[in-house]
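Dear support,

We are seeing what looks like truncated structure output for some complexes. This example has two components. We would appreciate it if you could run it in full and send us the complete token output so we can diff it against ours.
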Amino acid sequence: MPGLPTDADARPLLIERGGPLARTAFQARVRALRAALAAHPARRWALVSDDGGGFAAGLLALADPRRTVVLPQAPQAGSLKAAGVQVDAVLTDRPEDFPGFTTLALSQPTADGGEMALPDDASPIEFYTSGSSGAPKCVPKTFAQLRLEVEALERQWGATLGDAVVTGTVPHYHLYGLLFRILWPLFTGRTFLARMCAQPADLREAAALGSCVIASSPAFLSRAPLGELPPASRVAALFSSGAPLPDETARALGEDWGKPAVEVYGSTETGGVAWRAWDGAASRPWWHPIAGVETELREEDAGTRLWIRSAWSGGDWIATGDLARTEGARFALAGRADDVLKFEDKRVSLSEMRARLVEHAWVADARLLLLPGRRALLGAVVVLNGEGRSALEASGKFAVNESLRAWLRVSYEPLLIPRKWRFPDALPGNAMGKLEQAKLLTLFGDET
Amino acid sequence: MNELIEELKQLIIDSLDLEDVTPADIDPKAPLFGDGLGLDSIDALELGVAVQKRYHVKLDANSADTRQHFHSVENLAKFIATQRG
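Here is the complete output from our reference environment:
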């Protein structure tokens, strides 16, 4: 079984708040966690940490064929209480946020020792994502799949990256951030920045250390002023994933900033599938499959759905959520094949959120919809019950909004919480589908 | 300082398109992100851009400081006041 790369040079494994962390010190942390876990009877472990370094150590310590690592959709206790998510214990750097759960602290007293082996390939790791059924969807993977995907990324872009420091503006608890920000550098001996860069200034600070790699997303890149990004000359590669980059953002990066973003198409289920990079010239390029990915179109009522197969997606054909058309090996996407919404790089199931909202003591029924505008927002149309109407009369709309928002915040990231709320006496119309959507939209009137 | 605090509340409401929120609803000491006003990571990005444009302040202090400046309206006002000299 391979261990972590053991370069002779003194490059730190990661850079955290306190400064650089050497490979040996990281390995000591993993070994200490493994020792603490060995004596623990829990088999299904959720891993929650706001720090990419702690998360990496926790993942390597937990991964074991006799245990299952559960990576919740959001780092909140509510995500662990959602239907279909089962955990025995939580490995976390903030146990106080998980009352009622058995917890183990990520920081354990460390001792020196030798090299540390990578986890067994068969170690199960579960990702959770928004399904169309109304409950979070479990996407089971093995450690081998993560390792194979990193190997594919290294074959595709390793030479471009060189020994750049790896940073990112996306969270490490979703597959894209975990692979690009943490595991890729970890397995290939590059240094990574443990924390997520939330502001352009954080990226400039990282770039001051030397050449850097940035794993980002359309939500970030479409808002960050180009002048606030590190100069393109300091960036070995800029990746964007989660959704397609808007045309104007992709063009501006290629032409004005000076280096095209490498867009990566994929999903939690499939892992990385394809890439494209647009320098702004002529028309937008089609997607090229990453070496090792096979694609196929299959006819459905809605159109031709894209299916993919790769070693890191598990070896079997997997249906993507997208319709597509192909030209040779390349393909273009042609819309979603299901009713899951892509919202600011995140997938959200509106039926799942509706089910959660209806569980609130004041809510009789609810509908959610995407409101068009400068920034796409979710709107909630809620029919309050008697108790809810009394609260609205007594405390006002802001207070009721806040109560419902707080309720959803337990399970959802802040980004997904509806921003506009309407409380009609009844839901408009009785027809299903588009007619109802249009009537709901009129409730938000001129503001959209 | 109070004037700046009120100005910032209005800037937050306008630039982030917050509905049903009046300046009086925003406690200058309450956290802007997470549990307080419930702003998200995109709001943080947009607010950072709006503040730099309006007040011509530079946010390239180290990021731990930036987080501190954006903790609350009061912190943000103090930061801008210092930068203006």
